[in-house]
Design brief:
heterodimer; A: mainly alpha; about 80% helix; B: about 325 residues; Rossmann fold; Alpha-Beta Plaits; six-stranded mixed sheet; 13 helices; about 40% helix; membrane (chain A); transmembrane (chain A); transmembrane helix (chain A)
Chain lengths: ~260, ~325
């Protein structure tokens, strides 16, 4: 019950921030939409006309996942940096719930609250391009959940590094391009990326949304990789976060002010 | 019995930090041990860099000591950190410990949520705290629009909401105007008395310490130099410096005797009156002084004793005059 209350408190905070600072939320949405328009225009202008439709569909899925990865992985790094500077990170660290549970609640709540924006972006991009993707919830949902778990693991790693490293901002700037790379590169080009966090998940969602693959058509092997990635990256991420927390408590790094 | 009364026990605490880009270490805390009893208000004092904040952060479980133990309500805060944290809350950076983009009420509810409590569970407590801290009218105001004093009060209210036995406050009156500073002092007294909470305050404001703390632990150079009740320290450093105003002047014989008996005495003559400034080593010596005045029936008009404030005492302790004061007192 305490864990549920923790999650509720963080969902509420996330929602309040989105609602109270609506112009910021709209500006963020527009920025991502403009980036998408740029990609779409690029395909229209210089892309191969014979593969134009599939390229557009490919970009829609990729950029939606890029946005999701940014919200889950990158945003937690910025949040930690800001809170360490402000002084609230120390307060959170004094919670008897443990800071890792608060961070997990933050990751889940930002995903839940941002989901509305993600859906809006998805439909906006489909409307703009006229390319309507296959939204098979039953197939997408299990893939998405497993993909998100591995993303949370990566989020934990970034959160841990942000606690320990005061000058992480430069890396966080670069990270958004690394995340773009991981979401945009197809597995056919680099099959080893299947074992990177969330890459396999994006690939499977692409197969569902673009090629209309159903749940029964997905190989068990693919689900195994997805499941392995989810468990592996989540626990590795959590382990690294706890290690970073301990280093921070030894060196007095929980506050950056 | 001792276990019930002692809420915090700090034993042989040590903490060093490695200097950046160097193999040298800064010894922030070298050997700190003290106990705090349930319901006490203890002042943790020391000059800048003495090790106060490091000690407070180690008690809060935000810093891991190199060696030594801290038990909170009988729980070792390194072995069972999260369990120990149930008994403790803190305001470490005052108004910086808040979410400025949330309202007063939202801050209280959010921090309660982060300790696992639902909004419904704390609703009544939030209302009571808003009333106690006189923040009801500002409940829906964003924190960044509040005055520093109100932000400070809210930070203390957040710590109160944790329902912990111990509250640690680092510089609770820093940057506050006189009126708000007094308001915060009253609140802290009320928290200790009405809610039976233990409070540890670290402050540079000696007025605050003298006003609300029963006991003070003074740290200097990472070590405890004094752990005593404020009243005891005031008594110990009580100065026996007097200025006696006389309704006439002293004769030559009296002046010679004064110089002989009290070599450090300062005698000043004015029209139809005079004054004697004297620092007495022992309080009984005042009778010898009066014998000198009685010799020529010189009338005594007033006796003024020089007072010493806690700030002067603190400075004397930090300069190492504690032992001298003990010797003089005995």
């Amino acid at each position: 019950m305490q864990g549920f209350n923790l999650l509720k408190a963080n969902i509420r905070m996330e929602y309040i921030e989105y609602k109270r600072y609506l112009p910021n939320t709209i500006a963020m949405l527009l920025t991502f939409y403009i980036i998408f328009i740029g990609m779409f225009a690029g395909i229209q202008l210089i892309g191969d006309p014979t593969t134009q439709d599939s390229n557009v569909q490919f970009v829609i899925v990729n950029y939606i996942f890029w946005y999701l990865a940014m919200i889950v992985v990158n945003a937690i790094g910025w949040q930690i940096t800001n809170e360490a500077t402000q002084g609230t990170l120390e307060q959170l660290s004094m919670s008897p719930m443990g800071i890792w549970r608060i961070m997990l609640a933050r990751l889940i709540s930002s995903t839940i609250v941002s989901f509305l924006i993600i859906v809006a972006l998805l439909y906006l991009s489909m409307l703009t391009t006229g390319q309507w993707l296959n939204i098979d919830i039953i197939t997408i949902l299990p893939i998405l959940i497993l993909t998100l778990i591995s993303m949370f693991g990566l989020g934990f790693i970034i959160a841990g590094l942000s606690v320990v490293l005061k000058q992480i901002q430069a890396f966080l700037q670069i990270l958004q391009f690394i995340l773009a790379g991981l979401t945009f590169v197809p597995l056919t080009v680099a099959p080893f990326l299947a074992y990177f966090p969330f890459v396999k998940g994006v690939d499977l969602v692409r197969a569902v949304m673009i090629d209309g693959v159903t749940l029964s058509q997905i190989r068990m092997e693919d689900f195994m990789i997805l499941g392995f990635n989810a468990v592996f990256y989540f626990f590795i991420g959590l382990g690294i976060f706890l290690l970073c927390e301990r280093v921070a408590m030894k060196k007095g790094l929980l506050a950056h002010y | 019995m001792d276990r019930v009364e002692t809420i915090i026990e700090v034993q042989n605490l040590k903490k060093s930090y490695r200097k950046r880009k160097s193999k040298e270490y800064i010894h922030a805390v070298t050997d700190v041990s003290f106990k705090v009893n349930q319901g006490e208000i203890v002042g943790l004092l020391g000059p800048n860099g003495a090790g106060k904040t490091t000690t407070i952060k180690m008690i809060c479980g935000l810093l891991i000591p190199d060696s030594g133990t801290i038990t909170i309500n009988g729980i070792n805060n390194q072995e069972k950190r999260l369990k120990a944290l149930r008994h403790i809350s803190a305001v470490l950076e005052g108004n910086r410990n808040l979410y400025w983009r949330l309202t007063v009420r939202e801050n209280l509810e959010y921090f309660a949520g982060n300790r696992g409590a639902s909004r419904k569970e704390v609703a009544q407590q939030v209302d009571e705290l808003l009333e106690t801290f006189r923040l009801q009218e500002k409940a829906s105001e964003l924190v960044n629009r509040l005055s520093r004093g109100m932000q400070q009060k809210l930070a203390i209210a957040v710590a109160m909401l944790a329902d912990s036995d111990v509250i640690l406050l680092d510089e609770p009156t820093l940057g506050l105007d006189v009126e708000t500073s007094y308001e915060v002092r009253d609140l802290l007294r009320s928290i200790a008395n009405d809610y039976n909470r233990t409070i540890i305050i670290s402050s540079h404001d000696m007025d605050v310490i003298q006003d609300i703390c029963e006991r003070t632990v003074i740290i200097n150079g990472g070590k405890i130099v004094t752990d005593d009740k404020v009243d005891n320290l005031l008594r110990l450093f009580e100065v026996r410096a007097y200025t006696i105003t006389l309704g006439g002047v002293l004769s030559e014989k009296q002046q010679k005797l004064l110089k002989l008996t009290f070599p450090g005495a300062e005698y000043k003559e004015d029209i139809n009156q005079s004054s004697v400034g004297v620092d007495l080593e022992k309080s009984e010596a005042i009778y010898d002084l009066f014998d000198i005045f009685k010799l020529e029936e010189t009338p005594v008009e007033s006796i003024d004793r020089k007072s010493i404030n806690f700030e002067e005492i603190f400075m004397k302790i930090v300069k190492g005059e504690m032992d001298d004061a003990r010797v003089q007192s005995s």
